[in-house]
Structure to design on (261 residues):
């Protein structure tokens, strides 16, 4: 079974060569921790996003592993150096076949 | 109230009292879990204090969504950069919160995310540099409404 959800990227669309740009990546996900119980006392199984990766022109520049301690709708802000014009690809992978991909274009002058 | 109901109530109170007796030992065990998690990261290497700044609000009303910021003082050049950042919360049922992998192309070592905190506790950030050395920073916070414990 494969799942996906809405994701959003906030980053500048253009930058000077060598500038440090800030990227905010958010994915819509409950991040069910696996520590909660229903009212009838049944444990709710864990269902979280496990990894997030960012590749810049197909080169991985940032990666993060998530655990249940990350809040719902995980937001992560990080930086990277604007090296060349091109495409940044963001990928989230999680439990139960969850997969979400987002892309953003950047023009470097 | 009938006598039977009353007896049931007394029994419940007994359990609550028992619960409050057990809890302190559980909290203690969690601290050990966190130490174990840190041990796993460093595999016994010495951790130096400093270079890592962890920012969380000192008072948190709701532990479900706490803005956490980690920054590591590093030039982030090919010869000297931060390789990984681990965030460990000693009072959470699972101490590991996240691990970030950086490269010299990151430019800076600043990460912001939103985390869950189960209890008032100390949160640690441990950074591993490319030369293998470990640095740590921590912050303490007071949580009034805990994450994880609520029912659905």
């Amino acid at each position: 079974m494969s799942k996906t959800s809405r994701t959003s990227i906030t980053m500048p669309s253009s930058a000077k060569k060598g500038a440090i740009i800030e990227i905010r990546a958010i994915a819509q996900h409950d991040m069910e921790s696996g520590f909660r119980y229903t009212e009838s006392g049944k444990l709710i199984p864990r269902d979280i996003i496990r990894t997030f990766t960012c590749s810049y022109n197909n080169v991985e520049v940032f990666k993060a592993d998530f655990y249940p301690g990350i809040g719902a709708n995980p937001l992560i802000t990080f930086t990277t150096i604007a090296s060349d014009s091109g495409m940044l690809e963001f990928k989230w992978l999680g439990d139960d076949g969850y997969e979400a991909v987002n892309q953003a274009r950047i023009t470097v002058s | 109230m009938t006598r039977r109901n009353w007896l049931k109530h007394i029994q419940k109170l007994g359990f609550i009292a028992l619960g409050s007796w057990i809890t302190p030992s559980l909290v203690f065990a969690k601290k050990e879990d966190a130490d174990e998690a840190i041990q796993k990261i460093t595999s016994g290497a010495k951790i130096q204090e400093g270079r890592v700044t962890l920012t969380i609000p000192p008072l948190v009303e709701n532990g479900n969504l706490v803005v956490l910021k980690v920054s590591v003082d590093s030039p982030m050049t090919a010869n000297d950069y931060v390789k990984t950042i681990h965030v460990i919360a000693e009072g959470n049922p699972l101490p590991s919160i996240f691990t970030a992998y950086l490269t010299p192309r990151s430019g800076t070592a600043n990460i912001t995310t939103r985390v869950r905190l189960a209890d008032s506790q100390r949160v640690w950030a441990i950074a591993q540099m490319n030369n293998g050395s470990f640095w740590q920073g921590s912050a303490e916070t007071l949580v009034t409404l805990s994450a994880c414990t609520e029912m659905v």
Observations:
- The mean pLDDT of chain A is 92.
- Chain A touches chain B at residues 20-21, 33, 35-39, 44, 56, 59-81, 83 (CB under 8 Å).
